[in-house]
Fold:
Amino acid sequence: MSDCPKFSAGLWVLAQTADRFCVSGYGPKVPLDEQIKIAGKLDGVDGVECHGSDFDDFEVQRYVDLVAEQGLVTTNVNTNVWGTAKYGLGAFTHRDPKIRSHAIDEGKRSCALARELGAPSMALWLGADGFDYPFQIDYPTHWDLLIDGIRQVAEEAAPDLKVGIEYKLKEPRTHVTVSTVGACLAILLELNLPHVGGTIDFGHALMAQESPAESVCLLQRYDKLFNVHFNDAWGYWDDDMIPGTVHFWTTLEFLYYCRKMDYQGWFGLDMFPYREDGGQAAQMAVDNVQAMWAKLAELDTAALEAAQETMGAIETQQVIRKLIF
Structure:
């Protein structure tokens, strides 16, 4: 199917990954310049995503030159407001005004970097903002601070950059505030800014017991799906596995509704291949999604829509199973 969305690779996919049981990582360290070169060798990948913190010790112009040499573009700049100890109790919602201000400044820095790198968007995944125990935070104050912080970054992004808010149920907090597609959409509707939308991470939607396809439809109902982070997971945790390896039918449905709802953005690979080669995992991810997208060309859409009108599981399954069986 020729209209398959474009793919970008999160550079972290191609780096060394570690977990709390093997903090040194399961493979050798991969420097940022090598990550970019690996991305350039991937068939079907036209862009990369980075983090603002990547430039703490890497020159912006060097990055720009390397990305251009590989024939790539930067599609999105993510904001790291969770990876240092000072954000242990929160970032945009921290009660210490200095820490909160620093977090918001990091968001504004991502805006500046996006412009330098030629990226059309920046992203906020506010994983440190949440709670772990009952009575730990005052929820109304917490939400006021959260939305105010997002608004400040959105003002910095206007008018030329899109801002994508990514939700996740838990981790690193037991309860992340921007937890579900509903919570994300509530923020978007309250802000009511045309350049602020949502990011769906496939595995995060599974964690929240959502149908990722329905989440696409909900955000697109308001023209608010700005980015997709693609992976797969067992649904209990943020496993960040290769797309299409666990939830085949759910992934196929997700792709079907991305197409039906006219999603025009990127499919950004967001995986943590702890024990696998990052480049090989990324290539398999692209190959899987492209093959599944092509498989949709074989779907009898009229028959499916007629079956859906019956609301019957047997009727709809009889249509889609013909793709495989």
About this structure: The two ends are 20 Å apart (CA to CA).
